[in-house]
Amino acid sequence: MQSEYMPPDTPLCVIHADHELVAVDKPDGLLSVPGKGAHLADCLLARVRAAFPTALLVHRLDRDTSGVMVFALTPHAQRFLSREFEDRRARKTYVARVTGRLEPKTGAIDLPLIVDWPNRPRQMVCHETGKPSLTDYHVLKAGTAESRVRLWPRTGRTHQLRVHLLALGHPILGDPLYAPDASLPRMMLHAEELRINHPESGRGMTFRTKAPF
Fold first, then answer.
1. 109: which of 127, 135, 142, 210 fits an S-S bond (Cβ 3.0–4.6 Å)?
2. What residue spans of the chain are helical by DSSP H?
3. What's the pLDDT band for 2 if we cut at 50, 70, 90?
């Protein structure tokens, strides 16, 4: 269930809000949390707190990824929702545009990932020391130049979707780290749907936003 709610005088796109949590549609190019330095102070957390002063961080999206993010509004909700992600009960769905024709149409990418220390923040596949990482995918539309794909990460590693698709030879279009292309306005990755249980009622909730590409 979703409800439309827009607090006054805020640039936020709010999908749902109640006394325990708020779900918003994060724009691409905006940090989830503040970076180092005053020039990186603007972030989604700060904007959410301007409208919901008790907002607490639960999870993050990469700066160049758009889509659904949820914030807790109470310490109890933060603990509960954090466990939802840690225990992999939160179900995340993404949509992406990738280079080339991705085949087969449906599959799983099971490749361990670890930080590429000399080239941080880049990540890389490493079968010796990488952490288990699993992504399911389904191709929605495929052409010679690019494919549109829906993705379900079963683990939550840094840059997981980006590196898994790169490892298949089909990097995400416009990815500034793994497939730079100045001709594209953004990285073509969107967090389309998030399913969680409500921290008070335990009722399943689904938040969804349409990809802007």
1. 135
2. 44-51, 75-86, 160-167
3. very low
Q: Please, are residues 152 and 92 in contact by the beta-carbon 8 Å criterion?
A: yes
**Whether 92 contacts 157, CB under 8 Å:** no
Residue 8 has pLDDT above 60, yes or no: no
Backbone angles phi, psi at 75, to 5 degrees: -60, -40
Q: Look over the chain and give the mean of its residue pLDDT values, rounded to a whole number.
A: 94
CA distance 191 to 207: 10
Give the contacts of 30 (CB within 8 A, at least 6 positions apart).
Answer: 42, 43, 44, 47, 63
Output the CA torsion 119→146→31→115 (10° steps).
-30
Of 64, 63, 29, 31, nearest to 48 (Cα)? 31
Distance of alpha carbon 94 from alpha carbon 65, whole angstroms? 10
pLDDT tens-digit map of 43-63: 999 999 999 999 999 999 999
Query: Known catalytic residue: 181?
Result: no
- CA angle 20-93-51, nearest 5°? 30
* Model pLDDT for residues 62-85, shown as the tens digit of each residue: 999 999 999 999 999 999 999 999
Please pick, among 25, 28, 62, 175, the residue that the annotation labels catalytic.
62
Contact between 208 and 2 (Cβ < 8 Å): yes
